Each structure stands twice: as structure tokens, then as C-alpha cells.
Amino acid sequence: MSRPSWNDLQLLLLPLKGSPTAFWDTFLPSLPPSHALLAAMVIAQSDPQVRAAFLQRACTAALQTPPAQLFEALKLFPKDLVLSGFGPALLSPAPLGPLAAAILAHLGITIAPGDVPLVLTASTGSDEMLEHLARLVPQEHVDSVIHDLETQLDASKPGIADLRDAFVKLLRTPPERPLPAPEVEPAQRPPDPAQTAAPQLRPEETMAQAQARLAGLRPAGVRTSTEPGGNSMVNTITNPLSGIDRNLLAGIVAIALCIPLVLYLSSDTGQEPAEPAVMPQGPVKLPKFWTDAVTKRRITREFLAADNDFQMGEMFLVREQFGDALSLFRDALHRDPEHVAAQFRIGCCLFSLDDHKGAAQAFRKSLEMQPGLPQANLFLARISVAAHDWDTAVAHYQKEFDLTGDVAVALEYAGTLRKLGRFPEAINLLTRLPPRFSGHLEVVNLLAQLREDARGIAP
Amino acid sequence: MNRRALSFVEVIIAMGILAMCMLPVMTMFGSSGRAVLKSQNLAFAVGLAHRISQHLFDAPYEAIVEVPLPGNAIAGGPDDGFFNPLLNDKTTGAGALRITQAQLPELWMFLRKYDFRYSLIVNNVNFATGDQMKCVGIIITWKEGGKDLLYKLYTYVPDL
Description:
The structure holds 2 protein chains of 2 kinds. By secondary structure, chain A is mainly alpha-helical.
């Protein structure tokens, strides 16, 4: 039997993907049975329902073709699948019933013991059919089947008793006898002794129900694809692995287990909120606090109210309405005693209102709240300068310069040092400025004046 | 050569060693992933706040009103002039796009996932007769990593 090329198969199948019926009616008759079944599997591989329909029709068509041509193709499929296709035909009249029995017998497929009485009563009763049916009975269930036949069949009906006796006789015959025609190669292997208990036939069961049950039944001697040693993909997969180094296999398994672990642990999904499927209904609950995404500070509603006052105070401060601004900053600080910026701005307002004592107190408090707060030391230095407290002023200037390294602070600090006649310190301060400020006009001018002042006092 | 397979215990021990070696790498991946997530959401919040800020200068002065916390949801929120409608590249009102699941599903999903909301804190400031401003605090809130995060931006809208 020649194998069609993949291109031919594609050309054949692709236009028909959307119309399985056209595929069946147009091409199946022109293909050998094995090719037709393979084509059916290929075209319907992604759709189990279409595939089941194809196989059903393939099995029906196969019953009408010489069986010898089909065994090779039928061996391609799992036995339970073949039984699901041929099982219902066992209940059909000739020629389907006897042919289905012959095919199943030659393929070594057995049926559930509970189905035997029904199949037997539906059979034609020919010697050939009875012999095939006898091969469908699992050997270890022969006694129970005979018991069922004797108890369930109505011997008063004409012909039933003879049929039963003939069948029982065949069942008791050793199975080594060759099968009658059709002439095919012998069955692949004897039925598996590990069988599942099939449901017993109920007398009131209809023919349609029995057909449906037969179509869905597992063959009694065939293992499922999940059982070890089954006639399934398991063999296809495990057999090639038998040639692989077991250490390598263990390593692969370990890596395969580690990859999901690594992916899980490295993912951030555990910390992300789940996607809501629907919009939340009702009022949204206010959280106790938020986290500022920039400063990481805890934000409460009180803080937001205080910040609002603070922002309004800033507007008044820009307009140089220091009294109104001071009032708003104090409100902000009252709402949130930890509002550093409000504390600092209170100092600024008081400084502008010439309340140096109060301003110094406010700046010191802000430094206590945030030791590295910029400009607080600068204002304290200015307050000290105003009070002619030079040492304290120099100390605050130095702190501010160390904190910020700002050129404006350096110029103001150097100017104070110049007033104090401490020219070398001032020169040293300005020369320590970062290189980017070396060309700054005010820096250059002050440095020149300081050097001139220094030369003037030199001996 | 005496070659034998690995036992299950040996495989488990090897996996444990591998996991311990991978721990710093995994931690690095996890922390960098969180950092990316945070910066992504913060940048998004900044963009939202600035969009509101720009629309405030375009809005009628009297129409700038408070939106109290917890604020309006941005995804599927009301027609507010800030986000709904979001854009309109057509010549008629029928082309206006809103942040809804039907019209902008990806944006809607992102905003819903982190529950982005906005609030407005509005204060009138009167400096003198005819000289007034509105101090508007734009609050963007969202949920991230089990936390309620907030970004605030203040803008001042003069009565021109």
C-alpha cells in the first residue's frame, strides 16, 4: 500500500476542513481504507467530535468492504476506539453484525460479559457468527457468561434454547481453534486478564440503549491509555526513553521541576491585586492611610488637610502676605504636628516679620524634626548675623554648606568671613567649590576681592 | 564502568542546592520586577495628575469643584471633562472615546486592575477684591502590592 505524500495529503485535505461531509462523500471512496482513516484522523485531529463522527462512519464503511483490507488500518487505532465503532454493529442484522463480530474477533478485542446475552439474541445464529462471538468473551468470564445465559435468556422463545446451547458449547471449546473466514493474520495477543467488571444486562434495556452502551464501553481486555502497558501513546513515549541515560533523564526531570519553581518565585504576581471581574458596587471604603508614592511617607486624611492649609499658605507667602501665610502654616502644623515644611515656613514668616527669636525657635524645631533639612541652618546663620553672634553664624553657615554644597550659600558664607577679616578661610571655601562653579561670575569676583584683601593685610 | 541512576533523594538534594543558588537571582528578578511596577504606576499617576492640571486651566473657574476622597474611578467613571471622554479624533461628538470596557478595553483593564482614582481638594483664596485663586490639590490614588498609594500635585488656578 503506497503512502501518499504530505503535499498530496494537504492538497487533499485543506479545502475540505470546513466541510467534513463533503470530504467523506467525495474522497473516502477513492482512498484505500487505511488512507481514509488516517486522513480522517488528520483532518479532524483538533476536533474530537468531528473525529468521532469520522471514525463512526469509517467503521460503518469498513464493514461493507473486504475485511482483509482493513485489519492493517484498524490496528492503527486503540482497541477501545475500534470497539466504540464496531460495538453497535454487533446488534445489527447480517451482513453488519457477523462482519463486526469477525473483525473484533480477529483483532483480539473482547466485550463486556454483561453484553453477551444481548449480542447473542441479536445475532443471526450462524455457526461462523457464534464462533466469532465466542472469541469476544473474555476467557476468565466464560463461567459467569454461561451462568448469565442460562438465567437471563428466555428459553421458552423458539430457537433461543438451541442458540444458547450451541454458544455455550463453543464457549467451552478450547480457544486454540483457528478462526473461520475471513482469512487474516491471527489475533495480536490474548485478552488481558485484568478486566473491569461490566454492568449486568437489565432485562428491560432497549436495543437503542444497549447500542449506546456498547458504543461507550471499554473493551474488556484492553487497557486504557493511562494504564501501564496499554496499547496507547504510553508505549510510544516510554519506549524511546528506554535508550536514554537514566542520569540524564533524572537531570532533565530536575530541571523541568525547577523551571516552574524559579518562574513562580521570580514572578511578582503574588503581590499584585487580582483583576476584578466586575465593577465594585456600593460606596468605596476609605483606607486608613495611603503611602506617598514619592516620599514613602504615610498619608492620612489629617495630613492631606494640613497639606492643603500649607499649600494655601505658600500662595500668601509668595504674595508676601506673611501674616495670613503664618496663620495658615500654623493651622497646618496644628492639624499635623509632624509637618516639617509647615514648621519651617513658620520660621520663614516670623523671620520676614522680624521676629528673629520666634523664627530661630521655629527653625530649630524643624531641624529637630528633620536634621538634614535644607535652608534652616542658613536662616539660623542670618539670624545670628543680625544678632552679631558671629561664631554661631559661621557654625550654621558651615553646617548649611556641608549639607547642600550650594554656591549661593558659599557666597553668603564667604561674604560673612570677609566681613570678619578671615580672608584665607573665605578663599579656601570658594576654591573648594566644585569645578562647575569655578567660572561663576560672582565667585570669580569675590575670590579676586578676597585675594586683594589678603594681599593688603600681608606684610 | 559502573554507571547507576540517580536516586530520588539525590535528585531532591540537587534541586535544593540549585534552588539555594538561584535564590539571589530570583530575589533580584523579584525586586526589579517590583521596581518596574512601581515606576510604571507612579509615572502613570503623574501623567494622570498633569492631565487634570491642564484641563483645570481650560475649565470655567466656577466649574472647578471638589471631588472628595475616595474619588472618582478613572475607568468607567462619570463624564467629567478630564478622562471621559478621553479623546475624540472625529469631527462630531459621536467619535468621543470613553474609558470603558467596550471602547478602550486594555486601558480600562489596567486602570481597573490597580483601581486608579482621582480626587480634587479645592480651596478659594481671596487676596483682595477681584484677586482670587483656587488652590487645587490633585490626588491620584491606586492599589499596588496590597498598599494604597497616593500621588499629589497642587496647582493654582487664577480667576482671569
